[in-house]
Amino acid sequence: MIQVIRAMRKVWETDPRKDPNPLVYTIITIVAILYPIWAQLSTGGQGDFLISILADAGVYVLLAIGLNVVVGFAGLLDLGYAAFFAIGAYTYAFIASDHLLVTPLHTTVHLPFWIVLFIALFVAAGFGVILGAPTLRLRGDYLAIVTLGFGEIVPRVFKNLSEWTSGVNGISALDKPDLPFWVQGPWSGDPLAIVRDLKINSPLGFYVIMVILVGSCIVLVNNLRKSRVGRAYMAVREDEVAAAAMGVNTVRVKLLAFAIGAAFSGFAGAFYGAKLSLVSPENFGFSVSITILVMVVLGGMGNIPGVVVGSLLIYFITFIFLPALPPLAEEWASSLGLSSLIRPDGDWPGIGQEVQRLKFLIFGLILVLTMLLRPQGLIPSRVRAQELVKGVHEDTTIEDVNAETAT
Amino acid sequence: MTEEQSDFILRVEHVTKRFGGLVAVDDVSFDVKRGEVFALIGPNGAGKTTLFNCITGIFPPSDGGVIFNGRDIAGAKPHQAASLGIARTFQNIRLFEYMSALDNVRVGQHCRTRSKLWDSLFKTPFERREEREITDRAVELLEFVGIHKHAENYARNLAYGQQRRLEIARALATQPQLLLLDEPAAGFTPQEKVELMRLVDKILARGVTVFLIEHDMKVVMGISRTIAVLDHGEQIALGTPEEIRRNPRVIEAYLGKSA
Hints:
Largest sheet of chain B: 6 strands, mixed
Number of helices of chain A: 17
Helix content of chain A: 55-70%
Structural class of chain A: mainly alpha
Number of helices of chain B: 10
Oligomer: heterodimer
Number of strands of chain B: 10
């Protein structure tokens, strides 16, 4: 309780122009709590759809927070991040559905959601280590290419290993999460009990799980940032040689950062599988990796509130705004009295179709404009904000050095 | 253990470093006494920094041995050298630019602290206690080099002289027995050079042996007990400042062959 009061006072006292983070956290928390209520009220009880959307968006928030550890903290460009997402989701599919029956194993495993979450986490982290161990000796661009390759390979493997994964059809009818058995308690076995079979089916259930997961991940990553390990990540990002000379085992630190990022991704993947109840190799392509990277960069690399806001925004644009655009354009056209535009005519495909075609152009324009207007991201960490301002001291130092060493 | 307590903290034995056909350091040998200031001088390109890199494990020597506290550490990785007790600064300042001065010094304590990933993620009581100690020690070191007022500034925003001091503080944070300073006075005003010499004395008083590369003769002659001179990778002289000053080969290397 005292901590809450202290946190509130901190929000009150810090100038949001200097450090917007406390303010952003407060807003995020309030919105997260009020959102389901608003969704239900504004639609007259039909808000499940809206709540479900935000729960889906939460998956991307988790992914972006994880990628932020790899890219924002440790400075390792990972272009195959969706691979770990896929690994997490498929882990859930294998051990929490009937699917293994049709594989050469001919048996089924149904582990509870809460346990699989953590299994997926460790499996993904394990693959992170397997990929990282040979490649993290590479720097910058080379690492990006290797991870890009990995990101391409993993979905292909899931697609072509059809004996195990049903190939392009994917795996469906995954288990829905249960409440943990200790919540159901001993009474849950009683057929007359009121609290029985607490399957989480409603979007609100998923939403609550998601908020809890995202919340705890934010806390953990914040702790990490301000710790010995987190500082080692940043030291490696800033200058590997100097970090090594200060006693940081750079290879191990990079591997750890990579594994943590992968773990987040696996975590998110398991939730994604459970929520959608379906995994298919199509859902984990290169574009997913890039989308997550865009979320991190556009939100403000290295700064967690920025990443959260960035990922929500990009999710909204790519998955809600852009798909809704063609019908919206038709509506506008007819309300402006230009209904002739709606019908296809010769080369003209009709306004809906035209907007459909231009969808990604519009997306690209939005990205270009945001990065031009706010190159440091929406809510940057203090670091990135300074990086883009031409340092006065830097210039003078360089002059100093030359002036003195020349004499 | 007798070796541990021997007079020599560092023995460089016939160290050679070749890059392809180029011999950057050629069969160099000298000993650094515990508790002294040892200086390595020589014209530009003489191989001084290369020798530093061989000692701190940035790359292994092609030949020869580096004996630190009676133990051959040639070929050890940089982070291993650091945890054994060798710290260094860099000729071109290599701070963690986008981290605060305080955080730079905190990173320096990496090899002396134990918090693991688990502690970091969940802020265990152990981690909290260790973080407090790390911060206290970092503040103490910033005060020691005299830049504690700038603790919260980004390293890159410090003035040039402060950056050099911060690098020394960061190196001291690894709790070294031997501190390697690569041209610590480069770009300094005469006033700053005097302050640097005072700082080196204070470092010696902490029980740290100082081994430095320096161009400025006033600084070198003023603070060092023993001097080794390199030219084109070869060691051409070794002795006290007086001996070095009179050595004809040293004069020749610095001033060129007179007609």
